[in-house]
Amino acid sequence: MAKLAIGVDFGGTKVLAAVVDVESGKVRGTGKKKTRADDGPDELMERIYDTCDQAMVEAKIDRDHIVGIGVGIAGQVDAERGLLIGTANLSRSVVDLPMAKRLRDRFGVPVTLRNDVQIAAIGEARFGAGKGVDDFFCIFVGTGIGGAIVRDGVLVAGSDGSAGELGHTIVQAGGRICGCGGRGHLEAYASRTAITNVLIGELRRGRQSVLRQLIPDIDLTAPGGTAIRSGVLRKAVAAKDELVLEVVEEAGRYLGYGLATIVNVLNPRRIILGGGAIEAVDRLVQVAEQTTRREALPAAGERVDIVTAGLGDNAGVVGAAVIGAERGDRG
Ligand SMILES: [Zn+2]
Predict the structure, then answer these.
(1) pTM (two decimals)
(2) Does 132-309 match 4-122+314-330 at the fold level?
(3) Ligand 1 ion: nearby residues, β-carbon < 5 Å
(4) Mean per-residue pLDDT, 45-60
């Protein structure tokens, strides 16, 4: 009998759950729901319960087959208490919500909560682009930008659990205001939200772009960079749209500045790039790689492998399930 756990990836705009065979990394069933910025705590929990139920229905199992649940969430997590203590991109009603306890009460299995990118790094380490590599740095670019450090095969969480938060490193002193309130952070220049905000500003100023045809009824007031999805960016880049290329390439350069810092500080063997924007827009990865190699210290910058995530969109749910099952083993 396969060992199954549920992994939940709770992001800025959606929640994804999957029933995963934690020995093979195979996804047996999934569930997905959108989240809204104005969701209250009870609505959020209902959405998570629903996605878990959907995933179990698709996998044709019930809760007796599950050894545990792991949850990855965008923000700083208190793993001991199983709740989120700070977030730059999620609704404030998630902060201090006892998410692990509520899930445990609902499903009757052990539940572990961790930062979403740290969890995706565990998925990549076990079954993806980090397999067999002791020393790597993971960066995920989407609504925000998260990072995680794996050193000697072990996740480095740091003394307060926030090690690897590359999204909040300073790439432009005194620059744009970040979702966290700081200034000049990478996330304010290279996340999908940042790319979208710049594009919307330019469209408002009257710049021509294929975006006007791709999204005829574009909502220029939609929050959190949701007006332009990654898939639309991909189409605009493929159409060689001048405005979108300019903005994507600028974001790629900033991403490279951030990654060059990581190369210099940690000298990792490999950098793994993942997340919606990375999956969708190759040009972002190309420019980030060129900039990283050019800006980092020569030997470390030439030798580091720069690759995209092996598990794609599933890195988060697979890593979460792995963590959820480990906790389950200990009872
Ligand atoms: Zn920040």
Answers:
(1) 0.86
(2) yes
(3) 168, 178, 180, 182, 185
(4) 96
